[in-house]
Amino acid sequence: MGSLPPSLDLPSPPPKNPQHERVSETTLFNLFKAQQGHLNYFFQNLDLSQALSFTETLLNSRGTIFFSGVGKSGFVANKISQTLVSLGIRSAFLSPLDALHGDIGALSAADILVLFSKSGSTEELLRLIPCARAKGVYLISVTSVPKNALANACDMNVHLPLERELCPFDLAPVTSTAIQMVFGDTVAIALMGARNLTKDQYAANHPAGRIGKSLIFKVKDVMKKQDELPVCKEGDLIMDQLVELTRKGCGCLLVIDEEYHLLGTFTDGDLRRTLKASGEAIFKLTVGEMCNRKPRTIGPDAMAVEAMQKMESPPSAVQFLPVIDRQNTLIGIVTLHGLVSAGL
């Protein structure tokens, strides 16, 4: 066999790292312990009065809370802003570069501008301050180096105590950004509590995610109904209902009376057990004789996540729940497959 054309040559496996480039478990453990110590230093030395003043200022904001920063601090500022937005708080990230080229027009005297900077000497932020002050914005700096230029130029400063960076050269911003994130997200949750945000309000801000679906979707939103229901009467022969048992994809029959009241359920598992126990006698048995007269059920206004929990509860899990109203009238069925397909 000839060799493959050059364009089809398979790549060689990457060479193994030299021994000195490997990370030992002990080294990694010690780094985690060191970072834990640096974070503990932050918690032990944080001025809670400063943190409280900062939080209350954001809580009392009449306008939009803008966050800004450069580099890694900018990523943190953007993330914290997004967290506040998800809690229903008016917030936005303001790029200091874009601000100086037109975006500062978004600021008004009712707004707050929070500037994240480890050193407090970030040139782009210092250039932004006089422009923002001219708009009447309330300025807050969040820094880690004491007595910095940014703190002196703002209306409020929050000092985030930093022992040192985890980086062996004390340069790479890995601990400073961690404490910025911890600080900002903790304040966000404090605001969430102060504003008495309910689960429904929180879910309304996350309609497409699993969080929102679990808090918003009700059984009536995900159930099958009307022609999708595998219904039969208790006098129907089991063998005459096999097509209905499989055709609707629910794994069961819903046994009803003339007024559509639920009498019981008959599953494909019941079919197998009946066939094993009765043999040829199954041809003469009715659904009503072999159905479960006390199935688990649920109401249409229950939360969909509650339906899933009910399906999985002891003594054994089930794959579906008939949905009934207060008069025991069958109005739908919710299946485990349907809940999973809905993203729950």
Q: Could you name the CATH homologous superfamily of the largest domain?
A: Glucose-6-phosphate isomerase like protein, domain 1
Overall 3D shape: elongated
The DSSP helix count reads 15
Biggest sheet, in brief? 5 strands, parallel
CATH class of the largest domain: Alpha Beta
Strand order of the largest sheet: 2-1-3-4-5
Distance between the termini: 54 Å
> What class do helices, strands and sheet pairing give?
alpha/beta
Overall pLDDT, averaged? 90
Helix-residue proportion: 40-55%
CATH architecture of the largest domain: 3-Layer(aba) Sandwich
In total, the number of domains comes to 2
CATH topology of the largest domain: Rossmann fold
Family: Belongs to the SIS family. GutQ/KpsF subfamily.
Biased composition (Low complexity): 1-10
GO molecular function: carbohydrate derivative binding; isomerase activity
Region (Disordered): 1-22
What does this molecule look like?
The protein has 344 residues and is an alpha/beta fold. The protein has two domains: 33-197, Glucose-6-phosphate isomerase like protein, domain 1 (Rossmann fold); 219-342, Roll (CBS-domain). 41% of the residues lie in helices and 14% in strands. It is built from 15 helices and ten strands. It has helices spanning 25-45, 48-59, 72-86, 96-99, 123-134, 149-153, 176-194, 199-204, 210-216, 219-222, 242-247, 268-278, 287-290, 304-312, 336-341; strands at 65-69, 91-93, 112-116, 138-143, 156-159, 231-233, 252-256, 262-267, 320-324, 330-335. Strands 2-1-3-4-5 form a five-stranded parallel beta sheet, with helices on both faces. The protein has a three-stranded mixed beta sheet with strand order 6-7-8. The protein has a two-stranded antiparallel sheet with strand order 9-10. Strand 1 (65-69), helix 3 and strand 2 form a beta-alpha-beta unit. Helix 2 (48-59) crosses helix 7 (176-194). The longest helix has 21 residues, at 25-45. The two termini are 54 Å apart. Belongs to the SIS family. GutQ/KpsF subfamily. Residues 1-22 are annotated as: Disordered. Keywords: CBS domain, Repeat. One of its GO terms (biological process) is carbohydrate derivative metabolic process. Residues 223-282, 291-344 form the CBS domain.
